[in-house]
Amino acid sequence: MTTAPSPMFDTDELVINMGPQHPSTHGVLRLVLKLDGEKVKDVDVVMGYVHRGIEKLSENRDWTQIILLTDRMDYVAAATNNLGYCETVEKLMEIEVPRRARYIRTILAELQRIASHCLWLGTHAMDIGAMTVFLYAFRERELILDLFEEYCGARLTYNSMRVGGLPLDIPTGWDEKVRAFCDVMEAKVPEYEELLTNNRIWLERTRGIGVISAEDAIGLGLCGPPLRGSAVYRDVRKDEPYAAYDEFDFEVPLGTRGDTYDRYLIRLEEFRQSIRIIRQALDGLPEGPVMGKVPRLLKPKAGETYHAIESPKGELGYFIVSDGRATNPYRFRVRPPSFCNLQGLRPLVIGHLVADVVALIGTIDVVLGEVDR
Amino acid sequence: MAETIGFYTLSVLILGLAVLVVTAKNTVHSILFLVMNFLCVAVLYVVLQAEFLAVIQVLVYAGGIVVLYLIVVMLVNLKGEAEAHQDPRRLSVIGLALAGAVLLELAGILVYSSGSDAAVPSSEAVASPVQGNVEELGWLLYTDYLIPFEVASVLLLVAMIGAILLARREV
Amino acid sequence: MIDTIVIPLLKIAVLVNGVLVAVTFTVLMERKVIAWAQSRLGPMRVGPYGILQAIVDPIKLILKEDITPAKADKWMFTLAPILSLVPALVVFAVVPFGGDELFYVTDINVGLLFIIAVTSIGVYGIILAGWASNSKYPLLASLRASAQLISYEIAVTMTLVSVILTAGTLSMIGIVEAQQEAGFWFFFVQPVAFVLVLIGGLAETNRAPFDMPEAEQELTGGFHTEYSGMRFSMFFLAEYANMLVISAVVVVLFWGGWLRPFPNVAALSFLDFIPSWVWFFGKMFGFLYLFIWIRATLPRYRYDQLMRLGWKILIPIAIGNIVVTAVVKVLL
What we know:
heterotrimer, A: 373 residues, mainly alpha, Cytochrome-c3 Hydrogenase, chain B, three-stranded antiparallel beta sheet, 15 helices, B: 171 residues, Four Helix Bundle (Hemerythrin (Met), subunit A), 0% strand, transport (chain A), quinone binding (chain A)
């Protein structure tokens, strides 16, 4: 309902508090929306409701215990969090990771990417009202959780990697199950596309909504799919290969218009690319140990390092300082992709309608556990 | 007999609700009384065997126009309670004069129409070759009253265009 | 005395109860059908295949605590759900469920207009619920709802004019009889009108993909955010009762009401052993299924897109349809 801006009427702006308890702010994000009718004039993004002080806490944990804390940041993509942290410490300590371990890490990370994107697709579609996609996506995510459970016993917070490699080799027959899952997933992606990609309502709800130019996206420090949606070629897996990504052949999908629909297409394409990577990794899975030569007591020499990986949400970086004396980091800092992408929410939202706000929260794919840490 | 009882009960209801419309402090309550008033008038039409008018009364007045009133009231005054007028007696003289004029007019109509027997235009009703409430009304509107009907439509069209012009944001 | 008062009262009692029971089972049907669409099972615990869930659900809602927010307007807050439910039930008075006199309460010569008029009263329930809650989300939702209902009412009413032109009567029974005389269902002569009424009906009953007023992802439940318990369940009942109304109206107007397919084709007369009400309820069931299916499939429109669809697409098509129908009627 819009009112004419006539001096006869009192056109106060309506301030609405969206969240922290709101079904589609994906956790405890709070948006203070200033509305003119249903149009958003301004928004304050308030966060910090799940701040647990993981970074500070880590300075009092030893190097292995921190892995467990990283699980709790982006809790829907715990394996990539583990991977980023372990690789950072390995870089700091100059530890060589066995090739088999790097391959398995890649498989885990890509499975995690699919799981995270499934959750994103489901909730994003749900926000726009397509509730069947939500359950379809969760159905496939469930299969990945089963695979993880078989590998490390946990379904959400895996604690699945160690500095120097992996705690466990894969169980017998696990690789066949992953292969079977890839076949299933490949068949299911068209199913999502059938429900959404060419759906008129979906197109109207996402095309031209939340457009951000490449320049602005870089300026805001966006990363991951929101950045690639604006046609900026940036993928840590390609630019600074880690784990075993340099040995695989895959493409980085790019958008053209930088709108919600492009970001949606990119993530759907990433499903396919992830399947491609997993298949290559399974085909070329080398024999050998999964744990490198690591001292019993982890105690890196004094120094600092930064290492980033491409988590499902974007560039996940760890900055670690060691003073060389203690068995815990002197300083531990995370560059979480969700936090950086959340910076993009305000410019995206302003000028759109309330209904678009939920679509835009969905499209930048934030996990509040990672934003607040 | 039953009809007379019905008529007077309804009249009391209608008048009572009309008083409530004016006296209610809360604008939204007042509008709600107005809706009830219209519904009672619709029932009155049914008693007079004018079902079509009754339904149109509900559809247009209760279901359409008053809904718009309600939206406007909600948009303009979200705070609920209407603030009191500064001086309620300021305009009371004009109001009294207006009310007196309307009363005189009504009395005049009453006297005039009771004097002549042609209060009901029965000649047209007999002339119409169709049966039933709706059909008869349609017949009359498109034959005897065609010009007033068309003039009214043009008037509504003008009002609509005017409203659109006023409400447009950018010209 | 018996004919004018007792029998109608009995019919009304049966009808109201029947509708309410039908509504609870429609809710169950919706849960089941959507569950199957989403590769789930749906309710399975209460009774065989969860059938008794239809009874348990309302009991749960009635037994829940009924909260009135402290800042709410108490009278309006209580009145709103009643205003929402009553019109939805009243409309059934003129719906002919079968060919026999037993299957309808009354037949008035402005039946179709009566339905439009009474359903338009239902808007008040939604507006007042939003206003009386004294809360921002419900207010936004109720503004959306009222704008939506009024616009789509215009589209639907415009469309119905062409059906009335085809049938030559406003009586619900008259419309079905007109189809019997014509020998075909009006769907075959008014397919455009059918689609328009179906879309408009979805929008008027706040069903997906037009469920903006209660979009829980945006407005946290919309106009009934502050409602709980019995009063919430009245909104719920009203929504599903309206769904039944729309299905019934569409069946009467376009799908021959209680008539069998091709009522004048003698070759199909072996179908006559099926009672008329079975045809009616069968068709209604089909439309309910369609509504649920649509809800499981489509995303939600945005509010401004919905208004654009209503005003710039549906209403012009409806007016065009009236013109075409009138011209064809005059020429034939």
